[in-house]
């Protein structure tokens, strides 16, 4: 069996566990070593203070002072020193002459020999405290002076050396090792338990993935999110944005990163805000913002049975809606031309039949009247509207109105100079308002739609009015809401977007749009124009 050691394949939780175990082991080992060194240092310091205190006590004893000045101190001091050594638990007490000749020693055979160690500072009235290897081996010792008459500062009549062997000090330190080991074991167990809990939490948070897998996932996901051509928003259950890619920020017109903010704080269009905030399921839902037409899809996001929030995707349909509107206009124009061709054929047949019946004068009069009627509308539109795209639109709408039996009137004095607004916006505004008016007069007794335009006070005012039922006062504010329509719900279908597009185009051009209450409805659009254009057409 071959065991492959591949830490990079481990899950992130396992890597964290191993690293924390190693760190805990190093910390515990370091703490144990530090505690041992501290205990040994404390024991040595304690031993030094102990021998120094014993030495000073012996040196100040009047019995020792008197014996040190006698002619034969050994018989008196040897039993005294051994008695004190046994009582204090020290290893040796040596009382000696100023020249280092021993008067006492634990080994009587060494009495009378020279003391092995340093005595210079003690002879000078100070204290010697050192670790030194003497006749009994390495020891911690203290040497202090014995003053004549016991008075400090007089002459030194003897020296007292007290010591404890270092191996005795070490044995005391060794006695503390089991306690240190027990403390280290408890610390290791606590660290291990904490490490296991952290690893378990990490495994649950990272779904058991390794650090390399997590890094690769983040890199790939980040690349995909920024490269995808659809806007993507992740919103948690509290309505806070968790993720927003570049396309979503562009489509929603967000200047700053929305991550961490609630959708109600982003300043989005009311319908978009409501859709993102309620977290409901949505499919291909159209929303009109100030600059775009967006398609919103939204679904709940779940992971292992947990509800994480919602995932919303946004697609830009602005250009498609504009092209669709233009296509509808072109289709309407084609239908109108087809109808006109059919009507022209009927009129031509009438003229031919009159001629065949020998009524040539009546045929000429009939043909002339029909030509003058159709030419008059064309002349009115071409003379008033300089923008070619709008001219074509109005002629098409006129033909469409004629087919429906609607009186289409271009008001006298109408002026729309070229360049007053982008052609696409003019087509969107006028086309949708005229379509809305044609629908509104469908049931009127004498249906009529009127279109007019004026230049005044640096603005171009465009009006589209009809003699239909009009809008109730309580529905005026709703008229520009996406999805609103005066049609019954079952007949609405994809309606309710045209007026929202009108408001979008007007807002983009910096203008205003309003509608009057019944009778009928008059839609008034005011667009700012350049000063020189207004002056040239005044």
UniProtKB/TrEMBL annotation:
Q: Which residues form the Histidine kinase domain?
A: 311-531
UniProt cross-references to SUPFAM superfamilies, sorted A to Z:
ATPase domain of HSP90 chaperone/DNA topoisomerase II/histidine kinase (SSF55874), PYP-like sensor domain (PAS domain) (SSF55785), Sensory domain-like (SSF103190)
EC number annotated for this UniProt entry: 2.7.13.3
The way it spans or sits in the membrane comes to: Multi-pass membrane protein
Q: Where in the cell is it found?
A: Cell membrane
Q: Which domain of life is it from?
A: Bacteria
Subcellular location, principal = membrane
Task: Cite the GO molecular-function annotations of the record.
Answer: ATP binding; phosphorelay sensor kinase activity
Q: Which Pfam families match?
A: HATPase_c, sCache_3_2
Catalytic activity from the UniProt record:
ATP + protein L-histidine = ADP + protein N-phospho-L-histidine
**An example Gene Ontology cellular component term from the record?**
plasma membrane
Record-annotated membrane-spanning stretches: 12-37, 178-199
Classification via InterPro entries: HATPase_C_sf, HATPase_dom, His_kinase_dom, PAS, PAS-like_dom_sf, sCache_3, Sensor-like_sf, Sig_transdc_His_kin-like_C
Q: Write the protein's name.
A: histidine kinase
**Organism of this sequence:** Lapillicoccus jejuensis
């Amino acid at each position: 069996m071959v065991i492959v050691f591949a830490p990079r394949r481990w899950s992130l939780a396992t890597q964290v566990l191993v690293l924390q175990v190693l760190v805990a082991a190093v910390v515990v080992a370091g703490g144990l070593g530090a505690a041992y060194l501290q205990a040994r240092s404390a024991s040595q310091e304690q031993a030094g203070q102990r021998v120094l205190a014993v030495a000073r006590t012996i040196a100040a004893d009047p019995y020792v002072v008197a014996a040190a000045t006698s002619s034969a101190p050994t018989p008196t001091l040897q039993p005294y020193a051994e008695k004190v050594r046994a009582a204090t638990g020290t290893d040796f007490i040596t009382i000696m002459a100023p020249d280092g000749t021993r008067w006492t020693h634990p080994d009587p055979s060494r009495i009378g020999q020279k003391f092995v160690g340093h005595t210079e500072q003690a002879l000078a009235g100070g204290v010697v405290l050192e670790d030194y290897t003497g006749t009994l081996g390495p020891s911690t010792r203290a040497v202090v002076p014995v003053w004549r008459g016991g008075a400090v500062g007089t002459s030194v009549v003897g020296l007292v050396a007290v010591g404890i062997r270092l191996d005795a000090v070490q044995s005391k330190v060794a006695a503390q090792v089991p306690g240190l080991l027990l403390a280290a074991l408890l610390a290791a167990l606590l660290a291990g338990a904490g490490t296991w809990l952290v690893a378990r939490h990490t495994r649950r948070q990272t779904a058991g993935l390794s650090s390399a897998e997590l890094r690769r996932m983040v890199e790939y996901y980040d690349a995909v999110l920024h490269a995808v051509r659809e806007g993507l928003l992740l919103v948690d259950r509290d309505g806070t944005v968790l993720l927003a890619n570049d396309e979503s920020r562009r489509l929603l017109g967000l200047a700053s990163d929305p991550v961490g903010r609630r959708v109600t704080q982003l300043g989005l269009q009311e319908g978009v805000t409501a859709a993102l905030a309620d977290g409901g399921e949505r499919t291909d839902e159209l929303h009109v913002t100030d600059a775009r037409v967006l398609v919103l899809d939204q679904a709940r996001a779940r992971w292992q049975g947990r509800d994480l929030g919602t995932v919303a995707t946004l697609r830009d349909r602005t250009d498609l809606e504009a092209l669709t509107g233009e296509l509808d206009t072109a289709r309407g124009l084609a239908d109108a031309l087809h109808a006109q061709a059919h009507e022209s054929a009927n009129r031509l047949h009438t003229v031919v039949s009159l001629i065949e019946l020998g009524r040539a004068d009546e045929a000429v009069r009939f043909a002339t009247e029909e030509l003058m009627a159709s030419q008059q509308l064309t002349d009115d539109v071409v003379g008033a509207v300089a923008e070619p795209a709008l001219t074509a639109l109005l002629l098409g709408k006129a033909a469409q109105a004629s087919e429906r039996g609607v009186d289409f009137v271009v008001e006298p004095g109408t002026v729309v100079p070229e360049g007053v607004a982008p052609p696409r916006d003019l087509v969107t505004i006028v086309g949708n308002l005229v379509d809305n008016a044609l629908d509104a007069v469908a049931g009127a007794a004498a249906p009529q739609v009127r279109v007019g335009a004026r230049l005044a006070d640096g603005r171009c005012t465009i009006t589209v009015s009809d003699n239909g039922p009009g809008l109730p006062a309580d529905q005026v504010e709703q008229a520009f809401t996406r999805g609103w329509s005066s049609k019954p719900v079952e007949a609405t279908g994809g309606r309710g977007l045209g007026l929202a597009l009108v408001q979008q185009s007007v807002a983009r051009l910096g203008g205003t749009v309003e509608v009057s209450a019944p009778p009928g409805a008059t839609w008034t659009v005011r667009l700012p124009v350049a000063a020189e254009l207004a002056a040239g057409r005044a």
